[in-house]
Design a protein that fits this description.
The protein is mainly alpha-helical and about 110 residues long. The protein is about 75% helix and about 0% strand. The protein has one helix and no strands. It has one helix at about 25-110.
């Protein structure tokens, strides 16, 4: 149901005077009027509950979508951190390997001279 719903209830009651000593309304009319008021109140309650349930579901859906976006962003950051770490480790290993090779060839040259 759309959040901007409109419940139209038309319910008219004849204005009658209630005296403390005697009632001007007949018991059958009083019962019918009370029953109609209860029926309209239940309709209003059902419409309000349906509208609130819809609003709650929309809010829950938005929060789930935000949660998913945050999780994807966190995974991307973690993947980037792992990539940088692996690149750094490879670069360090290459530097150590090339440093050992240069030191070994430098010592071989000095022995040759």
């Amino acid at each position: 149901m759309h959040p901007n719903y409109k419940l139209e209830v038309q319910f008219t009651v004849d204005q009658q005077t209630v005296n403390l000593e005697s009632l001007d309304i007949q018991p059958a009319d009083y019962l019918a009027t009370g029953s109609k008021a209860l029926e309209v109140q239940f309709q209003l309650y059902d419409a309000a509950v349906t509208a609130r349930r819809g609003l709650l579901q929309e809010g829950t859906d938005r929060l789930e979508q935000k949660k998913l976006q945050v999780q994807i962003f966190a995974l991307l950051i973690a993947a980037l951190a792992i990539y940088v770490f692996i690149a750094y480790a490879r670069n360090l290993a290459l530097a150590q390997t090339s440093g050992r090779g240069a030191a070994a060839s430098g010592s071989a040259i000095s022995q040759h001279i």
